[in-house]
Each structure stands twice: as structure tokens, then as C-alpha cells.
Specification:
The protein contains eight helices and 13 strands. By secondary structure, it is an alpha/beta fold.
């Protein structure tokens, strides 16, 4: 008999301008592996967002295209890629509602950047054109998705370090945008060797993580540290589900 107590976890899909939804199955497979019930979240009318978020026990905002810089008060850089303002607006509203409900949330890749922008931070619109550091490593890898292309170091006092149990490791990387100004409601829990923000979290909410790489790829390969992320997230979603039922 199916376990009817599984937490329902919404996962956003990439929405192109023709309203086609695309989602790599590794996201749903990673959640299923850790005992959650994934639900691909469509764009709904604004008045239904609060109802949708009330029904979900957790939310993952996934990767995708560039974020419209108008969301954080900047004009578009010549190297800005394709943006889909409707998708930006919807994800921003989802994140705002989920944070208001204080339910477990993970933003991955673009999802990390949307979390930061939603809370008042900014982005590099294009790393090669705008990064101000002394050295920039490759963040838009050409290798297969399971290849680990650069190193990341975690802060030892962070939630993510507590979950993963690793201080320094290598990750995959598929982004030409990245966090520039960090929201004052978030703190950096990991950086790449060139100083790029690789993970964010918050002390203001029970469970909020932003991760720039794609641990779902490694979790399905059996990497324990990556599995721990999804196991902990699903456990937090289940705990929140029980609290809301009492």
C-alpha cells in the first residue's frame, strides 16, 4: 500500500515564452528517492498562489534562463540572455508566499538567484562582463552534467555544512549569471575558489537554502553528501506537514 503520509513538494519547471514546461527528471527522481512526492508546479493565477502554497509541504525553484534585471533595479546588459518576465514574476510571488508561510524551501542554480533577488539582492547579469574579482573560473561548463568542474568551500557554522558533512568538494556548474549583492536577509554559506557565491541560507526561516550547483545529479549517482541534502529537505517538509495537521 502506498505511503499516504509523504510530503508533497512543488518543483518549478522552466517556462519558455510559448508556455511550454520543461523539467529535467533528475529533480523529481531525487525527491522520490528521499521519500517525497514531487509535483511539477504550473503557473497559476495570482489569486491562487496562496492556496497552492498552502497545499504544498515544500518547494524547489529550479534552474532556467536569465533573470530580468528590472527586478533588481538595473537596465539590461548587452550580454543578458533571454528573459521571461512572466516566469520571473510568478517565481518571485511563489517564493514570497512560501517564506511568509515559513515552509521548507530550496532554490537551485537560478532558484538561488531568484531567492536572493526576491529578498532584495542583485545579480551579475553576465559574469565574464561584470565580475569584479581578480580571477574568474569557468562557471558555465561544457562537460557533461555529472562532471565536477570547480571547487566549493562551505562555512563550518552553516546549515549546509551540517547537512553535507564536507568542508571542501567539487561541483558541476551551469550559469553565466550569479549573486552579486547578497540580500541582508541571507548569509553566504559557500563560495567558489574565485569568490563566487555558491550557497545561501537564512536564520530568519526554519529551512531556506540556495544552492548554485546541481546536487540532484550527484544524488542519483549515490553521492552521500548530495543525498543528505534531499533527505534533510524531505524530512523538514514532513515535519512541517505534521505541524500543520495538528
Amino acid at each position: 500500500m502506498a505511503n499516504r503520509n509523504k510530503p508533497v513538494i512543488g518543483i518549478t519547471a522552466r517556462v519558455e515564452k510559448d508556455q511550454t514546461y520543461t523539467l529535467d527528471p533528475v529533480y523529481t527522481q531525487a525527491i522520490l528517492r528521499s521519500g517525497g512526492l514531487p509535483l511539477i508546479v504550473p503557473i497559476v493565477d495570482e489569486e491562487d498562489i496562496s492556496l497552492l502554497c498552502e497545499r504544498l509541504d515544500g518547494l524547489i525553484v529550479t534552474g532556467g534562463g536569465d533573470i530580468n534585471p528590472l527586478l533588481y533595479g538595473e537596465e539590461p546588459h548587452p550580454s543578458l540572455g533571454a528573459v521571461y518576465p512572466g516566469s520571473d514574476k510568478y517565481e518571485k510571488e511563489l517564493i514570497e508566499e512560501f517564506l511568509k508561510l515559513d515552509k521548507p524551501f530550496i532554490g537551485m542554480c537560478r532558484g538561488l538567484q531568484m531567492l536572493n533577488v526576491t529578498l532584495g539582492g542583485t545579480n551579475y547579469q553576465d559574469l565574464e562582463a561584470e565580475y569584479e574579482g581578480e580571477k574568474l573560473y569557468q562557471h558555465l561548463q561544457l562537460a557533461m552534467r555529472t562532471h565536477r568542474t570547480h571547487s566549493v568551500e562551505l562555512e563550518e557554522d552553516s546549515l549546509l555544512y551540517d547537512i553535507m558533512g564536507e568542508k571542501k568538494f567539487h561541483v558541476n556548474s551551469f550559469h553565466h549569471q550569479a549573486v552579486k549583492k547578497v540580500s541582508d536577509k541571507l548569509k553566504v554559506s559557500a563560495r567558489a575558489a574565485d569568490g563566487m557565491v555558491e550557497a545561501l541560507e537564512s536564520d530568519d526561516y526554519q529551512f531556506v537554502l540556495g544552492i548554485q550547483w546541481h546536487p540532484e545529479e550527484f544524488a542519483l549517482q549515490g553521492d552521500q553528501a548530495s543525498i543528505n541534502i534531499f533527505d534533510r529537505f524531505v524530512a523538514e517538509c514532513l515535519k512541517d506537514k505534521h505541524q500543520n495537521q495538528t
